[in-house]
Amino acid sequence: MKYIKLLLISCVVFFVMFTLIGLLFPSSITTVRAVVVNQPRQKVSAQLKISDHWLAWYPYFLNAAGSSISNAAGDTTIFAYDKKELLLYNKKSDSAAVAFTLEAYNGNKTTNTIMALPITGDSTQTQVMWNETEHLKWYPWERFRGLVLEKTKGIYLDSALNRFKTYIEAIK
Predict the structure, then answer these.
(1) For the domain bounded by 26-48+93-170, which CATH number is listed?
(2) CB atoms within 10 A of CB 37
(3) Dist. CA 111–CA 134, nearest whole Å
(4) pLDDT at site 104
(5) Concatenated DSSP letters of 26-80
(6) Is the pTM above the cut of 0.85?
(7) Every domain of the chain and the residues it spans
């Protein structure tokens, strides 16, 4: 009984200690990536609007047979394949940017903004910048996951932007 009590107290102390250490880490991770596209800004902005065009370049659909994009109630768009869904909502778009909240099937939410910025003095090139912020929960394992999250998110955004560049530059 004495050892069980010691074990329980130790577990509680370690959990509290890891939670307090985890609270020292940031509560959100922001990743920003950019790419220069050889197309005018108007054409880039039109392709960035959330629509069926995303099936051709968004990495979520890479090698995903039977993937689809559909509109649900309100302003929610559903990306689906293999019984997994990404929900896009809080969509806002104008001539320069598309902003949305993305909720993965595991419940993680990210705030995204994709901007098409003109390059000064060159009307045939556009810089596409993607800013993604993931809000982490207070759980210690979430905060520790945030340590490696920025690097993996950066790889994902680089992949998405390079696929978008390849896709849009092939359009004449």
Answers:
(1) 3.30.530.20
(2) 23
(3) 6
(4) 75
(5) -SEEEEEEEEEESS-HHHHHHHHSSSTTHHHH-GGGTT-TT-EEEE-STT-EEEE
(6) no
(7) 26-48+93-170
